[in-house]
Amino acid sequence: MNVETALKEATTVIDGAIGAALVDYGSGMALGTVGGGKELDLGVAAAGNTDVVRAKVRTMEMLGLKDEIEDILITLGGQYHLIRLLKGRGASGFFLYLALDRGRANLAMARHQLKRIENELEI
Amino acid sequence: MTALATAAVSPLLTRLAAERATGALLRDRGTLFLEDGRIVHAESPATPGLDVLLTTGGGLAPERWREAVDRAGARRQVARFLVDSGGLAGGELEICHLAAIFDAAFFALSPGSGPSRFRRGATHWIGSVRSVPAAAVERETRRRRELLDAVWPYPQLDTSPVVPRAAAPGQTVTARQRALLAHADGLRTPADLAWVLGRPAFHTLLDVRRLAAAGLVETPLAPVRAVRAATTLPDWMTDTQSPDVALLRRLRDALEASL
């Protein structure tokens, strides 16, 4: 499955999805985006959430936690933002970013489906 | 945004995209390959190529890369061969290829990269992976320039040897930054480190600027400009003379004949 298909699947299969992006956090660039529209500029979200990931990685270093981040959840009044770090051998430094409508989303199901989509992305 | 920031990064690229051109746009610091006006590949001597990103940075064995180039290079289908032969997952190739395009384009389109030439019809042996609109590449190139200066506006860091400094008590770095600092021996420049680590060169520039902003890498002082005594040059040196057009024509013809 290629990047665009994976992102399309994320926004169609996952209930309440507003938009999805694959982000390179070494540069803050979105390698692909689907959805978003006027209410959510995924390019800006990609660059900004790079700082979120970096801050969390650094905090874990400070705490001496020898573990890896699987995903990060940010809960807004009306949305969920889900950041899933990719773990493939060549893909260190990328994350999937998914914005969900809180009223329509099933969080547990969304996390599960995003994990499945990561596996299908073959990296 | 200033007028400068919104100006086209390369007017020639904009025009080639509009006329849906196919070929190679050659500049001093890199080459962009276009197909129907979209960018399908890019390379720059300033950045590690796709081969380095996939082998040193990724998990591809160097011999698999060589095998793909040997067996599929002539028919310009190296990318497809890598995936079809099971050496590489399609997603990994696509992501690394995109990273390589934007990385090389950043340097190829940098200011002062000299005049542009276009070789119509030229293609690259990597073959087709994915294409991106020229406008997206120009936009990203501009964003990257602004990002570097927003992080720490000392461009001399990009070309100077990276000299680590001791961390303050309690200061930590990420695993990626630690790997970079471990290879910074006081001689390697950010570009050298990018090759050693198998990472895109822009990512390394950004990491170095961030480390310098945090005080973990020395920020070199701006080179002192040599102060020269004002000397009066003779008129025959300073008066502008019209160029020898005939000579320039002969030079151009000779160069074109030798290509």
Short note summarizing the structure:
The complex is a heterodimer of chains A (123) and B (259). Chain A is α+β, with helices and mostly antiparallel strands. Chain A is built from three helices and five strands; from the N terminus they run H-E-E-H-E-E-E-H.
Largest sheet composition of chain B: 5 strands, antiparallel
Strand order of the largest sheet of chain A: 2-1-5-4-3
Beta-strand percentage of chain A? 25-35%
Q: Strand sequence of the main sheet of chain B, in spatial order?
A: 4-1-2-3-5
For the record, the CATH class of chain A is: Alpha Beta
Pick out the low-confidence regions of chain A: none
Describe the structure.
The complex is a heterodimer of chains A (123) and B (259). Chain A has one domain (3-120): Beta-Lactamase (2-Layer Sandwich), CATH 3.30.450. Helices cover 38% and strands 28% of the residues of chain A. Chain A has helices at residues 3-13, 42-63, 107-120; strands at residues 17-24, 29-35, 71-75, 79-85, 94-101. The relative contact order of chain A is 0.22. The model of chain A has no long low-confidence stretch (mean pLDDT 90). Chain B is α+β, with helices and mostly antiparallel strands. Chain B folds into two domains: 9-141, no CATH class; 155-213, no CATH class. The longest helix of chain B is centred in the middle third of the chain and has 19 residues, at 90-108. In chain B, 34% of the residues are buried. The chains are: A alpha+beta (123), B alpha+beta (259).
